[in-house]
Amino acid sequence: MATITNLPTAEDTNPTGDDSLAAALEAQQYLDARLNPAPTSTSTATATKPFRSIPIIDLAPSFSGSLSDRQSVASHIHEACTTVGFFYVTGHGIPKPLCNATLQLAERFFHELPQASKDAIHIRNSKHFRGYEPPAFTSVNSFTTKETKEAFNWGYEAGLDPTGGDGGYVELDGSTDGSKNQWPLEAELPGFYEGIAEYYREVNKPPSNPLQFLLSLILQVLQLCRHLCHLFALSLSLPENYFDPLVTHPGGIARLIRYPPSSNPKPLSSVTEDEEIGLGAHSDYECFTLLLQDSNPGLEILSSDGHWISAEPVDGGIVVNVADFLMRWTNDKYKSTVHRVVNRTAKERYSIPLFFSINYDDKVETLPSCVSEDNPSKYQPITAGRYVLDRLNLTVKTGKY
Ligand SMILES: O=C(O)CCC(=O)C(=O)O
Ligand SMILES: [Fe+2]
């Protein structure tokens, strides 16, 4: 049972006027319905065809000047989002050595930074869930299980955005005085911040091999997210630039996560529920998530017939999953699929999700093309940041900071 006390009320915390807290609680109900489907239920939560594998989509043709090439990739995305809600992308333009170097930063953060320095940047110092969170401090599933993961979280910074942003960044709670990340001290973890920055924006380094530089497409993570927004728009038969005005100072929390080795390694099939859960079952909150994972499996996604499917690491692949905003925009056509992490191996596991949101001050409202007289909108409009904050508040025992 939930042990959350002191839940925020809409009046005391929400200046946006919409009922994002009700929407956040609705998401908890969606999760419960997915985890405990009624035997005769015909709701959209259970009506999808079961799946056993996760599609791999090569993004390379989506960088073509030809609209039909881009549309062809978008149609694969449409198929994946209406069936599984997860896919891997290859040919995405982020160089593999950069992905590996970013994953190594996660290992460095957890191994090299002294505990006292981690505690100095504890997320309890932050109103926006930025900084270090120790194991079992948060729970995505109402503290029904103790989560073994530990994490370091940060949010959007204009300085990390290759476009520089539009100067209008608005925080989760609507405040406009800048993003308040808590970074480790440079002296204690030299090169850490610059390493993260490389994942976000090009660094003025001469390419080691100029010919290769000219021949290959090189993207960083935020540019890839904006590119995916074009493809999601095309996949929904919207103008390609439909989401552009909504991602000029986008919300985007990213985190380094460490899952400790299992004390009793065993395969997926023989493990009972809620044993050594790294990260409890949940859906993600924003538009979509991009996930780097190391070579250790652990991510599991829930098929509509109750089977957990392992999202095994794919060489050079980045996991993409639909999150709640896309489900709300599309009136449930795209699935915000429930997933969890269980490290069933004797090795540590590291992952780096980036939860890509639209500008936190913009609203998510069901797309007109996804409603009809027979299929009215299931969702009220919500302000992006407020919804994410309300969902985050539900992950701490106090209900809020
Ligand atoms: O660590 C992973 O593989 C997934 C993490 C995740 O689902 C999340 O942080 O929301
Ligand atoms: Fe997730």
From TrEMBL:
Gene Ontology MF term list: metal ion binding; oxidoreductase activity
Domain annotation Fe2OG dioxygenase: ranges: 246-358
Domain of life: Eukaryota
InterPro entries given in the database record: DIOX_N, IPNS-like_FE2OG_OXY, IPNS-like_sf, Iron_ascorbate_oxido_reductase, Oxoglu/Fe-dep_dioxygenase_dom
Gene3D superfamilies: B-lactam Antibiotic, Isopenicillin N Synthase, Chain
Keywords, alphabetical: Iron, Metal-binding, Oxidoreductase
Signal peptide (residue range): none
GO biological process: small molecule biosynthetic process
Family assignment from sequence similarity: Belongs to the iron/ascorbate-dependent oxidoreductase family.
Name of the molecule in the record: Clavaminate synthase-like protein
Organism of provenance: Venustampulla echinocandica
